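Researcher: Let's do a round of design. I'm pasting the structure tokens now; please hold your answer until I've finished.
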């Protein structure tokens, strides 16, 4: 239950960041950076009496109905919450906060708007949800045209940026495309940062003391390997473990006190699946 509450809290913060980036960077500068929100920005230009938030709600409802009919209703409560939460967030900002452009410089709007949006989207994705819209369209294209999900997402975003180019001109269209490209790359890097851990191998004569510290004090597992020194030809033990950053600092200090001659290698692992870390899905 605690994890579920935490996930929904993270999703809520994520959709707030996305909504702020859309309302204060994208919409005032007509940057239709892909997805349903980008398409809503284009439609809003031709029908200004229709608020972007309302348009996103309408399109998401239509997409969920179509997806339910053609690809089944396997969305998950988190995705439905994130999708409609974002729509409500956009509507609320437009209705009560009178949003305006933080900057009129298209380059700055594209870069900073996308960075804020990417952080929010990464938080949503990392909680095992999505904001619907584009993902639903991608799944429909995947089913009926045998396109990979990644290519389908790119195709949808490309169509939206093409419409932005036709509607707002080449400059705005190209900056919208830049936002799409930055967004995809940045989301991946941020998610990697959320999930990154330290992968550690320790060669030490005090391997038993170190492994006990990992298990009892850090409450993590470890694996013991038999090894043999290439130079000394002596049998040795290697301790392998995966730890978070703060846990690694504690372990390093412990080893420094108990075996200053220990040999340690550290590498970065961007995701770990299994007991004690992220669940296998």
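Researcher: That's everything. Go ahead.
Model: Designed sequence:
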């Amino acid at each position: 239950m605690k994890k579920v509450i935490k996930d929904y809290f993270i999703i809520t913060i994520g959709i707030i960041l996305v909504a702020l980036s859309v309302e204060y960077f994208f919409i005032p500068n007509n940057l239709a950076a892909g997805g349903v929100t980008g398409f809503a920005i284009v439609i809003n230009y031709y029908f200004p009496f229709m608020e972007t938030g309302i348009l996103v709600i309408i399109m998401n409802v239509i997409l969920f109905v179509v997806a339910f009919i053609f690809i089944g209703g396997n969305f998950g409560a988190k995705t439905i919450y994130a999708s409609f939460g974002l729509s409500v967030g956009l509507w609320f900002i437009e209705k009560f906060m009178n949003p305006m452009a933080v900057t009129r410089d298209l380059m700055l709007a594209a870069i900073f708007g996308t960075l804020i949006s990417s952080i929010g989207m990464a938080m949503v994705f990392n909680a095992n949800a999505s904001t619907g819209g584009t993902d639903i369209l991608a799944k429909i294209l995947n089913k009926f045209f045998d396109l990979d999900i990644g290519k389908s997402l790119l195709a949808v975003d490309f169509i939206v940026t093409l419409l932005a180019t036709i509607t707002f001109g080449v400059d705005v269209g190209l900056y919208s495309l830049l936002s799409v490209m930055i967004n995809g790359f940045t989301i991946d890097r941020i998610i990697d940062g959320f999930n990154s851990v330290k992968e550690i191998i320790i060669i030490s004569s005090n391997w038993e003391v170190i492994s006990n510290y990992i298990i009892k004090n850090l409450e993590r597992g470890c694996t013991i390997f038999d090894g043999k020194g290439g130079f000394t030809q002596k049998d040795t033990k290697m301790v392998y473990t995966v730890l978070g950053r703060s846990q690694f600092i504690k372990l390093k200090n412990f080893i420094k006190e108990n075996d200053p001659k220990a040999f340690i290698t550290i590498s970065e692992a961007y995701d770990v699946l299994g007991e004690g870390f992220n669940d296998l899905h």
